[in-house]
Fold each of these.
Amino acid sequence: MNKKSIIALTAAAAITVGLGAGSLAWFTSTATSAGNKFTTGTLNITQQVENWKDVGQKQVAVDNMQPGDQKILPFTISNGTSTLGLKYKIELKAETPGVGVPNLLDVAKFELKLKGVSLTSGITFDELKTYLAQNIKVLDANNTSDSYEIVITIPEETGNTYMGGQGTFEINTKATQNNVDASFNF
């Protein structure tokens, strides 16, 4: 077979395959599922610290406390506009008074109340700090909150060493989404 014959046969075969493929008709259909949207939720914790109060719930200044005095610091933790439930913990951070000023956090006794129920009583600042760090609380989504009170007492047996003293601390609240494993370190 010569070269021209091979080329002619190859061309004829290609045309035949092309015509055959074009003559087959397959039915087709397409379905579309539009709008398959997904979103993430929001996590927004707020902390509102109110003014100091006395045991009668009257707003008071906390200057010039004396042994036996008791003051209340109310504060509220809220998930505000969160669309997700959340876990939170409260951390306390002591601030050191100026040089030569006695630190009342060393002598004061603390009580923590949640929604009016006493959780601790007569403990030191460090014990309160540890208690709060170990207790993670949960808030559901959409404007739920926990109302706390820290009751601070200057013990009657406090001596002159603490005259002119000062106690200052920060309250920090940290939160994460509710479904995070308990081992998560926030």
Amino acid sequence: MFSSKQEKDFYTPDNRPGIASVPGLNSVVLRGLRADEAGLLRDFLYEAIYIPEGVEPPDRSIVEQPELAMYYRDFGSGAGDNCIVADDGGRVVGAVWTRIMNDYGHVDDETPSFAIAVYKEYRGKGIGTALMRQMLVLLKEQGYRRASLAVQKANYAVRMYEAVGFRTVGENDEEYIMVCEL
């Protein structure tokens, strides 16, 4: 796995190097992001932007704005930098990544913030949930006590975050700030 704390593949709880399957989807495996794939995070960040139905999507260049670029720029060099991808026959179709940064979901300087995206055609199949659960296991193994994220209130993913253990600890007009105790 491409991580600031370790330079090896992600290990599942049963210690099989680099592989975990998604329940019900035998062709999809979870593995660590390889260093040569770090550029994918820019694309997945765009996919992570919640766009309500009927709203025109922003230009892809939006991810170059500093408040968004912090999610992927120099990934692998910072505290809490971890990434797990969903791989379907050699194609990365989803990613969850964390880093400690002063982002929308920031709660303190010891808590990694989450970002997650799954390509539209793969959503609703349990991939996002599997990615989230594996990342929470990894963060706990690394000694983190909690993880955080920010999500727009209208985003259907709120239910998934709650199902894997995140709870709302704050909110503003548009977003919930959620934390999962590890």
Amino acid sequence: MVKKNKNIWKTLFVTLVSLQVLLVLFLFFIVSSPAEKDEKKVAEHSAEETGFQEYFSVHMTKEQLSRLINDQMDQGMDIRITNQHIRVSASYHFLGRAVKAAMEFQPKALENGDIVLHEQSVTVGGLAIPGATVLSLVDSQSELPDYVDVQPADKQIYIQMAKIEIANQYAVKVKRLDLKKNDIYLMVGKREE
């Protein structure tokens, strides 16, 4: 009977060691195997559809984006991002007096990574002015970059993010732009031509 007990313990020990070895081999196989082919196909397909290969993403707050934009803008303009609007303000001299002008926009991120700024209000001094009129003047009188399309009839400005060049080969796309949640998510990558 003692021999039977020794054989049972020996058998159980060998079985346990065998299971552990198989588990280690199984884990090694899973870790060393390539990712699923379907995920690769989806990533390649999305890069082909958009002509954009994402390298990294950037998550920003409203305050960080405001500082970044203001650093790039003319010193006479000020950009403020609130919970609901993007406010562009400037001060102009008219007949020897400083006159403040401001425009408020409601931003929206599109699926293709571009941004549409819907005009909400325009004021010059204490006077409210129709947005379509001001946008028409901005469109005809300003030298704007190619990636900015002013659409006065729709009371909006369309910003084609993919056309903004960074070091002549990189581009930025907007993934999320939720001012209320302070969630601004940008993708930086390379345009594929």
Amino acid sequence: MPNIDDYYLNLNLSYVNISIKESLLNTAIKSNFKISSSSNGLPILVKDSTYINNSENPEQECIEMFDKPINSDTIIILGLELGYGLKYAINNFDKHQIILVENDLELIKYVFKNVNLIEYLSKPNLKLITNISEFKELPKNNNIIANEYYKNKYKNIII
């Protein structure tokens, strides 16, 4: 009988490339992750006592992340968090290529185990990158979207 804890994980993994899938299956979750509630009641991700999403209103944070002109056909989202940025991009920019960059395999695996993202992961205009060197090789793009946590995390590579 399949492990119920892996139900969402297996669903989500069916939409990522084989090398990412294998990496995630071989990743042990050692960090202390939990899903908590924001001030307005929405779920937010916490890693080792650090909020990955805005603790007040993660949806408003997401809207503000995208509150700038999108001036090419590619949008790069830094960070998966609980998927608010991914969902917003897929729902509002379906004609754009969307590249999601997240190099924390533990975080991806934890989110994939707890959140059903197949509606978004299955979109042909989405590419998931888990390797920062791959991100650095992308053409320069002004459409880099990130929340405060990821702006700080990736501040040395955002141009």
